[in-house]
Amino acid sequence: MKNxxxxxxxxxFELLKDIISTSQINTDKTYNLSIKRLSRELESAKVVPYxxxxxxxxxxxSKVTIQIASNIIKNFQIVIPEKSNLNLNKLSVLSPMGLALxxxxxxxxxxxxxxxxxxxxxxxxxx
Length: 127
Fold this sequence. Notes:
alpha/beta, single chain, two-stranded parallel sheet, 27% helix, TF_GreA/GreB_CS
C-alpha cells in the first residue's frame, strides 16, 4: 500500500460515513466484518480535497481492474448501493469486494474476508 492507509476525497468520506451509520444491521457476518473494517480504516484515512485526490485511487464511480488468486482478472465499477447491478459489473461500495477495494490504489494488494474465506486482491488499473 503506497499511501499507508486508504486515501479518500472529503465529500466521499462524509458520504461513506453517512452510508455506514445508516446501514442496517445485517445477518451476514462477512458484510458486518467488512463494514467494521472500513469504519476502522476511515478513522485513519488520509482525507483530501477533490483537487488533491490521486487519480489511481479506487473511489465512487471508479472503474477498476483487479486480479484475484493467481490469474483471475475482473473488472468492476464501484457505485453507491442503489446503483449496484452485478450484470453490468456495477459493484456496491458496501459489498465485501467494494469495501475491500475502496480507497486503495493501483498495485496495492489487499487481503480481505469474503464469504469464501480470506482472499488476496491486487489492483491492476483504476479509471
